Protein: GNAT family N-acetyltransferase
Organism: Neoroseomonas oryzicola
Amino acid sequence: MTPPDILALERATLSTVPAPRIAFDGPFVVRAYAGGTGRANAASSLDPSPDPDLAARIARIEGFYAALGVPPRFRSTPLDPPGLAEALAARGYVEKDETVILLAPIATLAAPDLAAQAHPEPDADWMAVTATAEHQSPARRREKEGTPALLMVPGAWITLREAGQPAAVISAVAAGPIAGFFDLAVRPEHRRKGLAARAVRAAAHWAAGLGAEWMFCQVAKANIASIALNTGLGMTEAYRYRYLVRAADAVPSLKFG
């Protein structure tokens, strides 16, 4: 089975991580939400061909974000047009939060879990566990609460319970043959019990039931524990992306315990 290519995975990201504001400018898709997760609050290219209008396009995209009163952010992937990084560096942009996209055939991950409860939206228990993750911010949590209303494809918010108490959570979205999982979190007192791996397998089981054939996740390079978990489950690197932001905007980097 041939794995999806980078463009297919980038398109899946647009479906699985929605944003209420979206525009296209040439090969770039420009998105904005509440300023939380970078994926829904950045511009990125879907075509690596040379772009003769790149300089004017960058300025125009900066104007889109300025109109919203938020700092511009570019998500740099292997689909960038030539010269994007250099053009942004000349405008005072710096790199932050390199992210690894991991991918696996969903059949190698999926396993049912009787302790896993799937809901069509995040409930109070799910949100409470998510809030224990060090990298979560109020803006990111607001976006999670608003995601179900924006999705055009099926999503699930899954909670694993231990002794009746919510112990681990994950979300999953199935965009046809490609599914993604996000928001994996385990309460501090329940860590190192294998719950994270069980949550991933439960999410894959849910998505496989909808016909998904591949599952991806996007993990910050700095999140060493999550990368180790997912590669230990058999997921392999497909590609990487990084954010380019203006140094003057002082956009904070993600922190992981």
The longest helix spans residues 54-68. The CA atoms of residues 50 and 99 lie 24 Å apart. The two ends are 36 Å apart (CA to CA). The mean pLDDT is 94.
